[in-house]
Amino acid sequence: MLPRQLLRTATAGESGRHGIHPGHFLRVCFRSTCTLSMLVNVLWPVVPAAIALHFARPDLHVWIFSLNYIAMVPAANLLGFAGSELAKKLPRVLGILLETTLTSLVEIVLFMLLLHNDQDGSLIPVIQAAILGSILANLLLCLGLCLFCGGLRRNEQTFHEAVSEVGCGLLLVAGFGLLIPSAFSAALRNNNSDDSESISADVLAADTLTISRSTAVILLIAFLMYLFFNLHSHHSIFDDVLRFDETQDEDGERELQRAKLTMPECLLAIIIALAAVCMCAIFLVEEIDSIVALGVSDNFIGLILVPLVEKAAEHLTAIDEAWDNQINFALFHCLGPSIQTALLNAPLAVIVGWAIDKKMDLDFDLFMIVLLVLSILVVGNFLRDGKSNYLEGGQCVLVYVIIAVTTWYYP
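That's the Vacuolar calcium ion transporter sequence above. Prediction below.
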């Protein structure tokens, strides 16, 4: 078991290589970091096929949607792999934050495209569902799979309270911050039965929009505090935690022997992955109306389908780390993107909508509010004792499956 610091040294200048070597670049990118990622890379031929189909047969809406949905998985996987290679050349906490930010670019691109394509407000519910769906996918599906896979190889896994308590506490606050505009709107809608206290629907919608925009600005300030906390004032705590996790890596020997990307190769891989992600996301978003017209609810697309594909790379990385007994790294990759979605991506969607005069707000459906709050509380309860096993992970995954089935029937 070799610390990741040795891996960083090997990565920074493996065999004295510099620049870009096409054969080595393609070989390393295909092998990726683990078996799961390598299997996902088999889907790369779907990427050019999906792009070509969009131009050759624009009338095949279902096929275009399906192929571009699949194509985003290997593209996001390459982005995650290149991000992890780049992260190993940086200090621990900064590297992980940069890695989660790169994978969140897929989500930000989708949000911006949905906002741009929205003409009559029909895509706003998809964005709202995708915001909460992203958090649910990380908390229930990704974290559940991490606890389940890690628990299969050992009786239990222990993680540091600095990761679980800070992460869950901040996520709970961020979640409630997101839901305050919804609570305001729902409370006044219910009071409209009393004539003396009622307000018009237009006034209520305008007030909710104003509150959402104010909340978005405040959440962005909270995100800056989160960055300062992790990168400056308390970075030593997290460095110690992650340094301990590096000594627990059961895959360290093989990781040290694996070929690495140079810095230029990392940047090239990121550019290729971002280009593929953006093109597939554009074609995917353009077909959402056609898919909804076939009977698939916009809630299911936003809450389940979109988060699964946009977070594929993050999920594969976290599961592999949990399997190798690096449970603190895995928690960072589960809780970090959820916090970033709540404090950065969602407020960014509201502010960009404000700038382009789109009525993007944080007035979520009551059904989704209940799902988010209960999920945060359940996960926080599981992580409270600092230990985990496959039973807790399996329960989280099963709850996510129940949510997916219910959302399919939710209009």
